[in-house]
Amino acid sequence: MDVNEKLDLILKELEEIKIKAKIEGSVEPYQSKETKELNAAIAKASIEFPKINVNRENPYLVAGYADLNQMLPKIRPILGRNDLHLSHQKKLVDGASVLITRLWHSSGQWIESRILLKPNKNTLEAYGSHLNCMKRFEVMDMLGLTINDDPFDDDGEADMEEEHKDIDMGAKLKTKFDRKKQSFEVITKEQYEEIMKELDDEEDLTKTVLERYSLRSFREMPKNMFPLVIREIRRIKEIRKRKYNE
After folding, report:
1. Which of 127, 139, 157, 189 is the least crowded, having the fewest Cβ atoms under 10 Å away?
2. In a domain, 19, yes or no
3. Residue by residue, what is the 3-state secondary structure of the chain?
């Protein structure tokens, strides 16, 4: 990165800081003056919130997620029974788009959250994808929802990705095959035991295969990688066997 690129990056970051400061320092409050009835309604509704399961798979990451259509149809009837309503709207702040998520009560009391929308690409597809993702996170935060086997609840592992790359070639599961066919379901106990049996405590072979497929451990390997990996282990063993017998 040259000097001009670094300067552009610094200016962009400063502009984002200014926008965030305006959002957070806005004279508009984040909640109504009174929230007593609203708080009571949320507490009552939260007892009814159902379990929400992962129903979609990100084709480019080893992760599943629960989309908005999985959450909202289950949540809205409960909110309605407790005189609550959830809404999203967008506002422009110095040319930047801000998502506002507000939880209303029939008494007129409300609370809201605000987040800057910043898609990586300036395309309609990128904006729509980013917007729905942010809506999903804001709904979860606003209502205190949790997802069964939430892939983002990883003890902060994804946030340490860059540090781990320098240590062990990356902590996330990144594979060298068609990611669109990838599964977030890990291998079974029986499959793991079969791999361990094939490896037969050969540490160098274990290390070779893990590095080749950018895996942290075989226990966390996606289930549909199993045939590929087991074939590779057997192939390497066969090559070594032939060389040994020559």
Report:
1. 189
2. no
3. CCHHHHHHHHHHHHHHHHHHHHHHCCCCCCECCCCHHHHHHHHHHHCCCCCECCCEEECCCCEEECCHHHHHHHHHHHHHHCCEEEEEEEEEECCEEEEEEEEEECCCCEEEEEEECCCCCCCHHHHHHHHHHHHHHHHHHHHCCCECCCCCCCCCCHHHHHHHHHHHCCCCCCCCCCHHHCCCCECCHHHHHHHHHHHCCCHHHHHHHHHHCCCCCCCCCEHHHHHHHHHHHHHHHHHHHHHHHC
Give just the sign of the alpha carbon dihedral 223, 173, 61, 134.
Answer: positive
Give pLDDT, residue 168.
46
Query: Tokens standing for 72?
Result: 């909202």
Give φ, ψ of 85 to 5 degrees.
Answer: -145, 140
Return the higher-pLDDT residue of 155 and 33.
33
C-alpha–C-alpha distance, residues 18 and 94, integer Å: 9
- Residues 68, 108, single domain; the answer is yes
109 lies in which domain range? Answer: 29-143
Last residue within a domain, chosen from 143, 173, 191: 143
Quick: pLDDT tens for 156-176: 555 555 555 544 444 444 444
